[in-house]
Amino acid sequence: MSTPAKVLGGWLGVGTLLMVALIEELPAVPVVLGGWLVGCFVVGGVVVADALRLRRREDLDGLQRSANVVKVAAVPFFLVNFVALARVVLHVGAGDRQHFGLRGFLTAVLFVVLTYLVMLTTSAYSIGCLAVMRQNGQIGPGFFGLHLILQFLFVADVVSAIVVIEVARNRLGTAQRPGPLSRQLLTGVLLIFSVFATIWLVMLPGFYSDYPLFDADWHYRLGFVPFVAFLILVVVPIVPLVAFRTAVRWYLAGDVDALRRSNRTVKLTMIPLFLQNFFLCAVITGVISYFPLRMMQKPSDAWLAVPFVSLSIVPGIIGAYLMLLPTSIYGITCLALMLRQRLITPRFCAIHVVLHLLFVADIISALVVSSRDKRRAAVPVAR
After folding, report:
1. Model's pTM, two decimal places?
2. Counting Cβ atoms within 10 Å, is residue 352 exposed (0-12), middle (13-18) or buried (19+)?
3. In degrees, to the nearest 5, what angle opens at C-alpha 67 toward C-alphas 154 and 187?
């Protein structure tokens, strides 16, 4: 990897630490961050020049190594950046009530533009990889165009970079098999949460009986399991990104069996966690809806309770759905690989991709895909 890539990765790390240290000192954030941005744009200019140099030399290995360092360093930076800037914008907007928070809106626009410019510097090496592979005929125009666009979009740039880096390694012959930790990380995390969720579900009947067998405080604490799972699977998406890179490596290696087994294991492991989440959402919705419904004078006024019900059920559904998406990484990748190897039809693939994005249906779909692959594998190929 190149020195400018290391410098930019280190500078992003410095920015992350600065924002964490100043998260409670809101007035100091714009000043300190402004000074950091000046240095970032200077380093970013050097990085762009370095990416162009490697591009001219067609140094695909140097480009992919540099892209990997920069994009990995960018993940914690942008997570902390989002939290810090959200607090600054809310603080500025709250102090500008006479203008209906207009200053907060303008501050948000300014910081989004500046953050976007920082993001563009982290995409220089990935774009260089795409250009070299396209010039050498190692990727098609569709792959090149799609990932070139994704490199200019927030969040999608990281996902795209993982694919581009792994494809570059595959073309170079330096692709690595997923290690034990990366293979089992998503399953292990879900298993831990599901164990606690199972304990909570077992404690549930006794908690509401006249003679509870378990400590109520423990039951209350275990009720936060879905919220912690949401933080790890959605808010701080390190585990999903590792799972995605693992899935991409298996896809490029043509390992259908590994994807199929991991998909089935993940989907079965997550069941207790999502059952607990369902019960908690039902309880919260019932509590929030109870008092408005009791105040209704006649049944025809029940529609007035809709805003209160939506206040609880809509965020609950959105949160649960966002947690569902990482658990479908292996399944959707497996379907794509099976289609590529002509083990399934395009229609079968499209139907089960949709099913993998739906509650309950995703588990059934995972089992169907697993059994179908076994049946196909058992049929001898005509020669």
Report:
1. 0.86
2. buried
3. 70
